[in-house]
Design brief:
This protein is 51% helix and 10% strand. The chain is built from eight helices and five strands; from the N terminus they run H-H-H-E-H-E-H-E-H-E-H-E-H. It is elongated and about 90 Å long. The model is unreliable at 54-68 (pLDDT under 50).
Length: 178
């Protein structure tokens, strides 16, 4: 007897839902894929994750977006930091550039350093320690990036120089020629 659609019984048989046995097979496959994914995820986190420092890393990594402001300074601030022992002078240039020369007394915290590595390196410093950051030149933005990261790590007295190593060398040459 034809269906209301005008098709015969053979069409109705083709549209029948999957049998229970087929449903069970598909369900088992889905469960197997989910279980395998869960096992691989857990194994990957155990092998490659740092579960001990995970929370600390998340806090540090997201802190940059919550950071406050820093003060904009000059090479005079950098010279003062170099002369004083109670200030930290930071060269934000790449390691290769730092090795070619820097302001006496500067430590290298390159712009490529992770916030977590910076936090670990600076953990012994009081957060109210005056910090002066410089980079390659007035056109370079590495110092602002590192300054923002320092503020996000809780440093409250950060100064970023509006001039850099290039201008420092030029002023040092000018002072030597007099």
């Amino acid at each position: 007897m034809p269906h209301a659609s005008g098709r015969g019984d053979s069409d109705a048989a083709k549209r029948r839902p999957l049998s229970r046995a087929r449903h069970a097979g598909v369900f088992k496959q889905c469960c197997g894929v989910c279980a395998a994914s869960l096992i691989l995820c857990v194994a990957g986190n155990l092998a490659f994750g740092d579960l001990i420092h995970h929370r600390e890393g998340v806090v540090v990594a997201t802190a940059v977006s919550r950071s406050g402001n820093f003060r904009v300074g000059t090479l005079a601030d950098a010279a003062q930091a170099a002369a004083r022992g109670d200030m930290l002078l930071v060269d934000a240039r790449r390691v290769e550039d730092y090795q070619l020369g820097t302001i006496d007394g500067a430590v290298n915290i390159p712009v490529t350093a992770s916030p977590w590595a910076m936090s670990k390196y600076l953990q012994h410093l009081d957060r109210d320690t005056p910090v002066v950051v410089f980079c390659q030149s007035a056109a370079c933005g590495y110092d602002e990036t590192v300054g923002t990261q320092l503020v996000s790590l809780g440093f409250t007295n950060v100064t970023v120089c509006d001039e850099g190593w290039r201008e420092y060398r030029e002023s040092a040459r000018g002072n030597n020629s007099r």
